[in-house]
Amino acid sequence: MAASLAPSILSADFARLGEEVREVAEGGAGLIHVDVMDGHFVNNITLGPAVTAAIRKVTDLPLDCHLMIEKPERYVEAFIDAGAEMISVHVEAARHLHGTIQNIRKWGAKAGVVLNPATPLSALQDILPDVDFGLLMSVNPGFGGQSLIRPVLDKVRQLRAQVDREGLDCRIEIDGGVTEDNLAEVASTGADMIVSGSAIFGTDDVRATTRRMVRILADAGEVRA
Ligand code: DX5
Ligand code: ZN
């Protein structure tokens, strides 16, 4: 089965954020990827719970909050209160990862763990049974518009094989450098959710671009509900 498309609003026109979120939703996006950056874990600053709450008002799609922040445990509840259904935290930033994952679930959201490109899958092993999804970064976090780091495709394939072999209830998300040109190849790795930012929001017609990319995923297998 192929993936659903998760447009990353990092590359959206923040002066028209609500309209652009509606447009990708109308184009068939499966979830909205919300990139949260604190200027410490990554050298960029984006948005927080208040903007997440504003986005919540304009779409019913799941909000997939990717926390690229130090000590993410401090803000998990605030993002869930703002309406996030999915919260992912970096294994490189969460000092008490198991407890943080437990709290995300306790407060009612799906819990995800993120690996930077150079962080091996072995870092996931002890937490994999406890998470709802694994997010594998195919760019170095902090900015949109970067090129996909191709070895991460094999990392996705390996995680897909492990999840299927062990019958784990863990979905797989890939994030960074995904474009219309490489989307079919990325979908073939077995990822369940595929993030794309600049390849969508950098185009003149966000709705039409989303529609084309969703069709590519549909051609790769029935789109996951
Ligand atoms: C990068 C973010 C990604 C990024 C994807 O730190 O986590 O979600 O916005 O954007 P593109 O698709 O432009 O690489
Ligand atoms: Zn992201």
How would you describe the overall organization of this protein?
The structure is a single chain. By secondary structure, the chain is α/β, with parallel strands linked by helices. It has helices spanning 17-26, 49-56, 76-81, 97-106, 151-166, 183-187, 198-201, 206-219, and strands at residues 4-7, 32-37, 63-68, 86-90, 110-115, 133-137, 171-175, 193-196. An 8-stranded parallel β-sheet has the order 1-8-7-6-5-4-3-2. Strand 4, helix 4 (97-106) and strand 5 form a beta-alpha-beta unit. The longest helix is centred in the last third of the chain and has 16 residues, at 151-166. 46% of the residues are buried. The model has no long low-confidence stretch (mean pLDDT 96). D-xylitol-5-phosphate (DX5) binds at residues 8, 10-11, 33, 35, 66, 68, 139, 141-142, 144-146, 175-178, 195-199.
